[in-house]
Predict the structure.
Amino acid sequence: MAAPRRAVAPPQAGDAPWTVTHLAGEIDGALRKGIATAVRVVGEVSGFRDRTHWYFDLKDEGAVVNCVMFASAARRVNPPLRDGEQVIVKGRVEFYAKGGKVSFILDSLERVGEGPLDRAFRELSEALKSAGYFEHGRKKPLPRFPRKIAVLTSRSAAALQDVINTRDRRCPGVGLVVIDVPVQGQGAAPIIARAIDLLSKDHARLGIDAAILTRGGGSKEDLWCFNERVVADAIFRSEIPLVAAIGHETDTTIAELVADERCATPTQAAMRLIPDKVELVRQTDSLLRRLSSSFSRVAQIAERNTSVHAHKLSAGALARTRAAQRKTTDLELRLERLRPQAVHARMIARLEAASHRLQRAMESGIDVDLAGTGARLAESLRGAMQIRAARAESAEKHLTAVAPVRVLERGFSITLDAKGTLVRKIADVRAGERLRSRVSDGVIESTVGGASPVRKSARRRDDAGQPGLF
């Protein structure tokens, strides 16, 4: 239903200026007189929003018109519209004075078919799928403990701050390198592709283990640079793993399909790559408990084995001693049966000598066996303990590498106000306020004399006139 006309005050005489209300009335009157009350227009749907009434843009190659379809008319269209559809609409043009906005109010709508952007997306998707760009088997695994991560996005984008906040919360020891690239508009795709290629080439020198390609939500036109072949080719060639998080959760781009992993939001992408320091501490504690338990079990087994071997050796020695005693007794009886006293004496001497040699041999053999067994058990125990000690040392090094104190040792500091609250920005402090700054080897107390924001330096450009990579 058309908005009622408002009474418009006539312009004042002479050279007096019009009121805004009078100008709005003139615009509304000109539109009503100059454009027919029922106009049929063909175009492509973009930015569709269902808010009981339907709101979207109708566009072609040269222009965009804001459209409104009230619920009474929208109920006759089924199913709801989607971005990229080609439609023919019929309605009237109206000027909403309070909002200063010209809208095309629709009475009816007909679907024509697939829009040019949808068709281009579908054709490129089919071509890349046939070439193997989407195959899971060729995608690179993400690192478990990345040292440094590159973030490809606009430096002014909210997505960048989401990634930084997530890193600070989960593991501040992970480094971030921001690569400032345009994330929408004509010419953005080649710059993004060039940045990915340069990052892939220099990642070893820069110590970068993975990358995040991200931006926030927008219309299909805003996100279109991520649907171009040049970006897909660069991601496919990349030598380091790349996580893509572009637009809203319902948006899907070619870049996300080619990337090694796709995430719904920039925060989710950062969480996928950056380990959680709390979980690392928990895992380290669990590993130390398991190592301690393993040491105890190894010691108990070694002690039990030593006892068993000693018992076996002692039992064997006793058996051999008793056998020797029986043999000696038998020889003595045989000697007694010999008549010649000389023979008797010589046999006795030989028997005693043999008995002594046998006794020494047995005693010597027992000592050697016990010593050899003990040495082998001790060597086995030392080897097991060395292996577990090395594992504990490795776990400790991982924990130390991501500890907050290491961040302070690299030149950072943490500043608190007089109440012990963390100072994050200039607005948190006042002139004359006492502050405490924690550095790697102690605390520095200071008084605020003044504060000024950091000015952003001009972006460096390369010879081709494009923004530099770093």
